[in-house]
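User: Could you check the structure of this?
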Amino acid sequence: MVGSKGGGERPCEIVVLLICLFVVGVIVLAAHWPSLSARALSLDDDQYLTRNRLVLNPSWASAKRFFTEVFEPSTVRGYYQPLAMLSLMLDVAIGGRVNNLTPFHLTSLSLHVANTLLLIVLLYLLFGKSIPAAMAGLLYGVHPTTVESVVWIAERKTLLAAFFGLWCLIFYVCFVRRKKWWYAAICQLMYVLSLLSKPAVIGMPVLLLLLDFWPFNRLGKKTVLEKLPMFLIAAVSAVITIISQGKTATAIPPGKFGLVHILFIFCHNIIFYLYKLFWPVNLSWYYPFPKPFDLSQPMVFFGVVGTAVLVVVLLISLRWTSSLLVGWFFFFVAIFPTLGLISFHPVIAANRHTYFPMVGFLLPVGLLFSRLWDGRKAKIILAVIVAILTASQSLLTRGYLVCWQTTEQVYKNMLEFAPADAVLHNNLANTLADSGRADEAIEHFNRSLLLEPDSAVTHNNLGSLLDELGRTDEAIEHYRKALDLKPSLPEAHYNLATLLAAQGKTDEAIAEFRQALRFKPDYMEALGHLGFALAEKGNFNEAIVYYKKALELAPGHVLTHGRLGLALAAVGRIDEAIEECRFVLQKRPNDAEMHFNVGVLLEMQGKIDEAIRAYRQALQINPDYTEALQHLETALNKQKSR
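Assistant: Sure, the predicted structure tokens are below.
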């Protein structure tokens, strides 16, 4: 019966539940198994992994910055999400690398399996029947729309938020059943952890009130008041999210395009998501805005009409059950932060946004399955239907995972659905450039610029590729075009500066490096290169300042340690210089030049014997090192004359 204690006092039912959890876990694992071999990196994986120095350098200092950079995260553009970043950093600590994504995928797949099992437990606690709960959970676990959240590195935040969100729901059910205060306390803790992973689950207090309405039938003033702490937490999280997103990325307010535009987005997405959940074919993680975005566009028109029909159907369903209305409202409230009222993305919809909200649809499904399970014939029919759906969805899931085996496949798949999208052409071009296919990359950069001529990012990326190809004049032209379009683009300032430095235009390069740092003060590469350019001009003391700032951000950067050592030597700080050079030798013991530098510094201090050993080590590595041989002979003469 709905609202019963869920079978917690029936040992046999618990055994059946455990068996169901094991079987479902194995099936979900098998369906998503190809994700472990996926090598694709998607749009923002650079800031979450490949270029995130904190993630790539696991330490307590990195973890501290993830949690303390509340309003302006320095290494990821977007909202405050410290637990997600910490999770990725831990994967790096156990061996995850850009060229070895398996540890990341293993963690994500484990979280998805865990989320599926938690959903089953939740449905069991609500409706009291293990096998029907397992069937409903299984359909969730193998659903093709969950693929992106599992295989996309940057979507660890979605998995973690759902993990803690499901625990929050489970402990709330336990609180309602047993009235123990500590269940409520743990429920609130899980809510906080969910928000620290991704603030998309911000509507949890409302979701709990929906459960109070159905199936608990306890909605009232008291149930609202008991959730006031969670509403306060939600308000704090909302403020942090809007500020951090606004400072580091884009956040388009609801009033920018007008009420009708927002209404069209809502209607479009409500029907679009229902369509993809119930007919999960032709999936892509990039669904651009339909053009024109008005009622002449079929998807917008059907969205408006479909939403109206849906509302009528849900109201009529109240004659028989509240479950459909509550399930739909659960989905709507859970997906509302990503529905488009405040726009954070260049897309109108995304499959990953349904990962946790889909739980809402599983509530009436779990109830239906539990009621059908009481009839013998209905039980057989239900089992057959679930088996067919599981098989078909698993095949679709594995088919979609094929697209994620390489980065190139991901972008080509997306371009099939959005062939005129400038962003996708730009990103595919970057991928092709990284694989050495310069001609194809230039072709896609040019397509991107035809579609969006004023894209500063694309001009900068094309300039970078032309620079690598030695076409420096064209590269400079694109860098300067990028800066004309967006003077605050630090990467363009940096790229232009490195090119100018290579041409010997050191003063101009220094000016551009300073501009890059003006807009991105923690730009480690710009700090290091600015230090080197200043050292070339003889400004060693200022160079030392920038080298040290760079090393605060990347303590293990060997090249910067070496350059810092040379700058310290130039101003007579020999002991510090030797320390820096020896740090380099710890990392690169076969660096003949650094052994030679240490020898010179030791000789300057009058430590002839140690200097001789350093010169000999340099010559042992490189017997043709003429300068080291000359210094060794001089040092030996000094040794004899003592």
